[in-house]
């Protein structure tokens, strides 16, 4: 059974239609990269699926049910730039936020929650920074904190919006190790990704998106030159041909 | 100091102290919602409601005028939201427009009502700059209830506020309704504003919300302490400002509270333990010293 099924999803941003009849489904235990040019609707797709942005039509089902019923099984890592890192709090506290659903609304986190958050930070190699102000973390460290926050959710399906953007090589490796571990455990991960060079190495599935699905499937079948050209339009073809 | 001992002055002092605490704490939410200007727009927007409330009843009935203030502030908030979401106008511009339109409308209505028979003695003018001196025991109870309410709302949902302010999308992903949180935020903000405008007036009200929060930011890196400190700063400014204003004949309370609060802000700006100007200069100096001495020792080592 598919973990995620998307049918004819259409959404707009102000006057512009950014997603048009997007349909695909995702199998459990897959690591999918969502690839496409700027403005192709990658982030919007995540937000519409998670009901953070309204859709015009179509439907999305999670584990054969609705998002509302499956909320605890779905984890989300927003773009690092979507929050204000000047907010007065420390790394451990941000990770703890991933457990708020489990702590229960209007209740205070307990010691066990704190320990769990600490474990997760440790997994991301951030244990030494637990008490550090989030404003004083580097971009890569902030991204690791976000990942750690998603990990404590112990979700079965993760959406990550450009977790590898603007991070150093060490962080990139740390994140990829974690993503592969998740896949080994049978979890499903969808990642908005920018770097075409690493798609084949990092992801077993790819979703080529430019307002609609250009191609979707196993990376080695789908991530072909023709499909990439079609996704990115003419500009990339000229650029790539010029460099070769 | 004789006035200090008078019964009424004591009520005024207690009221402004509690009001300062409540608005200081509430201001932290506005600060991190990046909506400091929102509180300014809403307090100005309360004025037409006050006047219409008076005009409808014909006598100075505080509950009716407060209800009027709340309604017009909420209409203003909805208008700002509507302008932002359905036009190309940005939020700060929308707030600027609504602030001046509502305040202008309020002043216009006020002038008309003052010309009505009996309108001159209405004391409506006091809503512009506030009139703390007229407060009585009943007002203290109102403020006390308000302050307790604000603290309860903040305390009970503390982690909810934190995640809602830091990462609203993630909060929604966890199932925390953004609409509900926004609704509670707006309701409490409007409650604080309509209580506060009686003391400091619609023009200075936002200072009561904004300044303590900004000052507190200079002392701490924890949201919890920021809220506590902001409450203390707001309460302190209310207390000290009111006491100073009782020293002179007819000295206005509201402005003195704001000036006291601003003094606290300047002290925080200079001496604040986090990002204060002095500490930054000192950190730069020590870093420079360390740098210079380490490069000197490198030189001498290199020479050996």
UniProtKB/TrEMBL annotation, chain A:
Cell inner membrane recorded as keyword: no
Pfam family, one: ABC_tran
Keyword Magnesium listed: no
PROSITE patterns: ABC_TRANSPORTER_1 (PS00211), ABC_TRANSPORTER_2 (PS50893)
One annotated GO molecular function: ATP hydrolysis activity
ABC transporter domain: residues covered: 4-236
Superkingdom of the source species: Bacteria
Keywords tagged on the record: ATP-binding, Nucleotide-binding, Transport
The family this protein is said to belong to: Belongs to the ABC transporter superfamily.
Name of the protein this chain belongs to: Manganese ABC transporter ATP-binding protein
Taxonomic source organism: Paenibacillus glacialis
Lineage: Bacteria, Bacillati, Bacillota, Bacilli, Bacillales
From TrEMBL, chain B:
Transmembrane segments: 12-32, 38-57, 64-83, 95-113, 140-158, 184-211, 223-244, 256-279
InterPro entries: ABC_BtuC-like, ABC_TroCD
Intracellular or extracellular location(s): Cell membrane
Membrane topology: Multi-pass membrane protein
GO biological process: cellular response to iron ion; response to zinc ion; transmembrane transport
Protein origin, superkingdom: Bacteria
Coiled-coil stretches noted in the UniProt entry, renumbered to this chain: none
UniProtKB keywords: Cell membrane, Membrane, Transmembrane, Transmembrane helix, Transport
Pfam family, one: ABC-3
Cellular component terms per the entry's GO annotation: ATP-binding cassette (ABC) transporter complex
Family, similarity comment: Belongs to the ABC-3 integral membrane protein family.
Task of the protein: This protein is probably a component of a manganese permease, a binding protein-dependent, ATP-driven transport system.
Xref: PANTHER family: ABC-TRANSPORTER METAL-BINDING PROTEIN, METAL TRANSPORT SYSTEM MEMBRANE PROTEIN CT_069-RELATED
Entry protein name: Manganese transport system membrane protein MntC
Species in which this protein is naturally found: Paenibacillus glacialis
């Amino acid at each position: 059974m598919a973990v995620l099924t998307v049918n004819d999803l259409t959404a707009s941003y102000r006057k512009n239609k950014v997603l048009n009849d997007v349909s695909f489904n995702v199998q459990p235990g897959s690591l999918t990269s969502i690839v496409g040019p700027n403005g192709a609707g990658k982030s919007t797709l995540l937000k519409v699926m998670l009901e953070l942005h309204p859709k015009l039509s179509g439907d999305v089902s999670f584990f054969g049910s609705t998002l509302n019923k499956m909320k605890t099984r779905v984890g989300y890592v927003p773009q690092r730039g979507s929050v204000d890192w000047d907010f007065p709090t420390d790394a451990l506290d941000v990770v703890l936020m991933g457990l708020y659903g489990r702590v229960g609304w209007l209740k205070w986190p307990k010691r066990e929650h704190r320990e769990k958050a600490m474990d997760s930070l440790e997994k991301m190699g951030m244990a030494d920074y637990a008490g550090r102000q989030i404003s004083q973390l580097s971009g890569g460290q902030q991204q690791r904190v976000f990942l750690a926050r998603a990990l404590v959710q112990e979700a079965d399906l993760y959406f990550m919006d450009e977790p590898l953007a603007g991070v150093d090589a060490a962080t990139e490796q740390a994140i990829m190790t974690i993503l592969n571990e998740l896949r080994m455990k049978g979890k499903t991960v969808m990642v908005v990704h920018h770097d075409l060079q690493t798609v084949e190495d990092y992801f077993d599935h790819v979703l080529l998106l430019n307002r609609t699905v250009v191609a979707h499937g196993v990376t080695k079948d789908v991530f072909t030159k023709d499909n990439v050209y079609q996704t990115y339009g003419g500009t990339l073809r000229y650029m790539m041909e010029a460099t070769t | 100091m004789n006035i200090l001992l008078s019964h009424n002055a004591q009520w005024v002092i207690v009221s402004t102290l509690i009001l300062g605490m409540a608005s200081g704490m509430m201001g932290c939410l506005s600060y991190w919602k990046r909506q400091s200007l929102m509180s300014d727009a809403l307090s100005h927007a309360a004025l037409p409601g006050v006047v219409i409330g008076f005009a409808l009843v014909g006598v100075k009935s505080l509950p009716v005028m407060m209800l009027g203030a709340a309604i017009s502030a909420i209409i203003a908030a909805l208008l700002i939201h509507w302008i932002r979401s359905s036009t190309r106008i940005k939020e700060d511009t929308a707030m600027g427009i609504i602030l001046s339109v509502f305040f202008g409308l309020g002043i216009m209505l006020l002038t008309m009502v003052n010309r009505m028979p009996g309108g001159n003695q209405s004391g409506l003018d006091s809503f512009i700059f506030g009139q703390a001196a007229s407060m009585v025991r009943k007002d203290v109870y109102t403020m006390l209830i308000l302050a307790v309410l604000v603290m309860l709302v903040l305390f009970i949902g503390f982690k909810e506020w934190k995640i809602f302010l830091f990462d609203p999308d993630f909060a929604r992903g966890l199932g925390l309704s953004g609409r509900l949180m926004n609704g509670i935020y707006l309701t409490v903000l409007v409650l604080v504003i309509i209580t506060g405008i009686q003391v400091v007036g619609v023009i200075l009200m936002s200072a009561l919300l904004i300044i303590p929060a900004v000052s507190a930011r200079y002392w701490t890196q924890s949201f919890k302490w920021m809220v506590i400190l902001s409450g203390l700063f707001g309460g302190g400014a209310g207390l000290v400002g009111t006491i100073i204003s009782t020293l002179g004949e007819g000295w206005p309370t509201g402005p003195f509270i704001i000036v006291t609060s601003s003094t606290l802000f300047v002290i925080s700006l200079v001496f604040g333990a986090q990002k204060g100007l002095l500490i930054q200069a000192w950190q730069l100096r020590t870093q420079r010293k360390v740098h210079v001495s380490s490069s000197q020792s490198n030189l001498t080592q290199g020479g050996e």
